[in-house]
Design a protein that fits this description.
One of its GO terms (biological process) is proteolysis. Helix content is about 15%, strand content about 30%. The chain is of the alpha+beta class. The strands form two sheets. Strands 4, 11, 12, 13, 14, 15 and 16 form a seven-stranded antiparallel β-sheet that branches. The longest helix has 23 residues, at about 220-240. The two termini are about 40 Å apart. About 40% of the residues are buried.
């Protein structure tokens, strides 16, 4: 236990594993020119039914086994996959076609596993190496404070005052939006005050927080929401009296959701694991420190080969769970690893800590989105991993377009 605590402190404090053959220069964030995505045309689509069942595990989604067999996508195929759906709070939906400008094709990375052994399906491999972050000093400060919880049961990460990055399958199963995503909410961590953090009963501020900041006096829907909110406050008060200092959530409604067409196939084909990411825009800005996006470096450029992420695993209710592990394999779009993670942590932001050029300080950036468990065909043998979707230059450009629109601020990443 003492050894595990040592390693937790080691990584939280930001030490970097560098052996004698590696220098600081090998582990820096390098600003690079990225392709530009430009919105070409937007179409109105029929409203989704929001009837899909949320699935916290992905099975047989096309991953690296397809990449090894299929030719590299053409520019038009990339533009089709990077076109995107937007679903709004009122249930309406659009499809935006995009054009890619300034694309420089890079070599495709193939899986490097030389041997393959069959494993039974699991998400915790051997000894459970996850850490529940319970200390308020860590929980309410960067980087742990950037983790959020989705009302559909997933996790996400703050990447701007109004935006959350998560996995696409947390809100969409590839063919339709999941149940509950029409009134999607995002929970930001906060600590209960002494005595359970109970607010004055019936206060206007309390009702706004419980209703995602959207209070409409007199409507039947609002009356029901207020009744539910009252029951939640009452239950929270009971829990708080015996669990002072436990974390709770401040819930905020989502204004709109963006999903790449590579994932939202609408029944026309299988969703591609490479595009399992989504961006949520909040109805109101938060005041927390967020984590910036970064372009995923290759495996050789990861300090110690390690990645980190935090999320709300279902087997540890309302606890923020942190983990780190080494990456086993990579493709052009995916990172394959054995970070211990249960359902609920999907959608977490995977991050690194690298040094900024010409500066003395080190900075954490998000370089992938944790997607979940996946079976992979390696030389005809089934092998399982926990998989993260990398932030490639094209995906960086797309997410930047979603956040900022068509402008030059997305030219470098």
């Amino acid at each position: 236990m003492e050894n595990m605590l040592f390693w937790l402190i080691f990584f939280i404090l930001g030490w970097t594993l560098i052996d004698g053959s590696e220098t600081e220069q090998d582990f820096m964030w390098h600003s690079r020119k990225i392709p530009r995505l430009v919105s070409e045309r937007t179409f109105h689509l029929t409203s989704p039914t929001f009837e899909a069942d949320a699935k916290m595990e992905l099975n047989r989604v096309c991953g690296i086994e397809c990449q090894n067999e299929l030719p590299a996508p053409s520019l038009s195929e990339l533009e089709d996959s990077l076109s995107y759906e937007t679903v709004f709070e009122n249930g309406t939906r659009t499809l935006t076609r995009v054009k890619v400008q300034g694309l420089v094709l890079e070599p495709t990375l193939n899986i490097t596993t030389k041997g393959a052994s069959v494993r039974r399906k699991r998400q915790v491999y051997g000894t459970d190496s996850r850490f529940s972050i319970l200390d308020k000093r860590f929980l309410t400060n960067f980087p742990f404070s950037t983790a959020v919880k989705l009302s559909t049961g997933c996790s996400g990460i703050l990447i701007s005052p109004r935006h959350v990055l998560t996995a696409a399958h947390c809100v969409h199963d590839g063919k339709d939006y999941v149940k509950g995503s029409k009134k999607l909410r995002v929970g930001l961590l906060k600590m209960r005050n002494k005595g359970g953090g109970r607010k004055r009963r019936g206060s206007r501020r309390s009702r706004r927080e419980e209703n995602g900041g959207d209070e409409r006096e007199g409507s039947k829907e609002n009356l029901k929401e207020r009744a539910k909110a009252g029951r939640r406050r009452k239950e929270s008060g009971r829990r708080g009296r015996v669990a002072e200092g436990r974390p709770s959530f401040q819930w905020t409604r989502v204004k709109n959701t963006h999903i790449p067409k590579g994932w939202a196939t609408g029944g026309s084909g299988d969703a591609a694991l490479d595009y399992d990411y989504a961006l949520l825009e909040l109805k109101r800005a938060h005041k927390k420190k967020y984590m910036e996006l970064g372009i995923s470096p290759t495996l050789k450029k990861l300090p110690g080969g390690m990645i980190h992420f935090s999320g709300f695993d279902h087997d540890r209710a309302d606890q923020l769970v942190y983990r780190f592990c080494s990456v086993s394999d990579e493709s052009s779009d995916l990172l394959y690893q054995y970070c211990d993670a249960e359902s609920g942590s999907t959608g977490s932001g995977v991050y690194l800590r690298l040094k900024e050029p010409d500066k003395k300080n080190w900075k954490r950036k998000i370089i992938a989105v944790y997607s979940g468990h996946q079976w992979v065909d390696v030389h005809g043998v089934q092998k399982d991993y926990n998989v993260a979707v990398r932030i490639t230059p094209l995906k960086y450009a797309q997410i930047c377009l979603w956040m900022r629109g068509d402008d030059a601020r997305c030219a470098y990443g």
